[in-house]
Amino acid sequence: MSCRQWILLILLVGGCNEAPKTIPQPSEPSVQPSVQPSVQPRSQAKVKQQPVNFGVTIAGAEFGSEALSFCNEDPGVLGVNYFHNKPWTFDWFQEEGLDLFRIPFRWERIQPQLGGRLDKVEIDRLVSVAKWAEQKGVRVIFDMHNFGRYAIRHQGKIVSAIIDKKYDSQVLVSSDNLIDVWSKIIRACDAAEVAPWALGLMNEPHDMGLGKWRKISRALVGGIRKMGSDHTLLVAGDGWSSAENWKKYHGAKTWIEDPLDKVIYEAHVYFDHDGAGTYGLSFSEELRRDPKIYDRPQQRLEPFLKWLKRNDARGIIGEIGVPNSIKPWESVVLGAMALLQQHDVEMIYWAAGEWWGDYQMSIQPPIENSLGNDLFRSLKKN
Q1: Is residue 144's pLDDT more than 80?
Q2: CA–CA gap between residue 136 and residue 266 (Å, rounded)
Q3: Which residues contact 63 (CB under 8 A, 6 or more apart)?
Q4: What is the pLDDT of residue 195?
């Protein structure tokens, strides 16, 4: 999700108006949404659902990172600034037929000191989700939601330090640091005898410098393979991972050589006028500005899909979303879904999570026994 989306997120959760007054235990830090949409209840009887053609991001552990004080020394308070979703949310989507779950986390929280130990609460949470996924027979992606950066205090100021960039002639966070944290996450999973389906190495890197992200991600994949890991690795694109601008930022060819051939390139797509995913204009205004709005799925996805085909590469749409209560937008995203199915490329919907409240792109069910909102039901049918 882009920085402009995070502005919306701050308005929704940054003030912590929905947070509990006391900090829950780490196993269940969460609250119910403040807005309870009117939805039909679903039967309490558990019926085996047919698999669906999309996954979902279960957001929450990455919340609160836009606070001015946020950094590795002050990453926020669990249950106040960010949270871990309760088991029922995961179970609900799994029982609805979803088998792919993307789980965001922040580097500063899982490793408060670069090169240091992992935070026990944060790594235990990821391990527990991986165990749940194995028990349920579904797939889970660990998604480092850091945008190619690590927030750290430097000379008395908080710096959102870009990987391998020098600040006052000093690199504050390096590629080696990134390799280190992922190596420790992998070892923690190995020790617990669980394996996530894939590792999302970095969400939406951007403004890294010409060619820098290609070099960093190439080194990261090499470092992970050197330690003996055979995980599937999701390599997001530079430029906010834009599917439409994929070739602009990455050139005509792939840049990762993986001896195991288990790299999947990750792009993101939204359909508002600037592709930021804020959907600040009404649909009628969007249509007035662009009468070919229903062609946007093809316009924005084809550059990435053609790049994959030319390079015989694997890809995934790691984020996609539209407002959940506006039917014309529903038609747009269903068109994108059909196009991706034609190219055998999976998509992960943004987003679910128990703190979203009335966030316009949420597909989070308001209560455990609900059928979910209309957009979710439409996505399921396709």
Answers
A1: yes
A2: 25
A3: 9, 13, 81, 82, 83, 355
A4: 96
- 16: pLDDT strictly greater than 80: no
- Which residues fall within 8 angstroms of residue 208, CB to CB, at 6 or more apart? 148, 162, 163, 165, 216, 238
List, for residues 331-353, the tens digit of each pLDDT value: 999 999 999 999 999 999 999 99
Contact 157, 146 (CB under 8 A): no
Helix axes 175-192, 120-136, angle to 10 degrees: 50
Q: Of 5-9, 330-334, 366-370, which range is least confident?
A: 5-9
CA–CA dist 69, 45 (Å, integer): 46
> Considering the domain 3-33+46-381, what is its CATH architecture?
Alpha-Beta Barrel (3.20)
* Predicted local distance difference test score (pLDDT) of residue 31: 32
With tokens 């009335």, the residue in question is 358
CA separation for the pair 266, 241 (Å, rounded): 7
Q: How far apart are CA 304 and CA 166, in angstroms?
A: 32
Domain locations in the chain as residue ranges: 3-33+46-381
CA distance 349 to 47: 23
**How many of the other CB atoms lie within 10 Å of CB of 274?**
11
The CA distance from 270 to 242, in Å, is 9
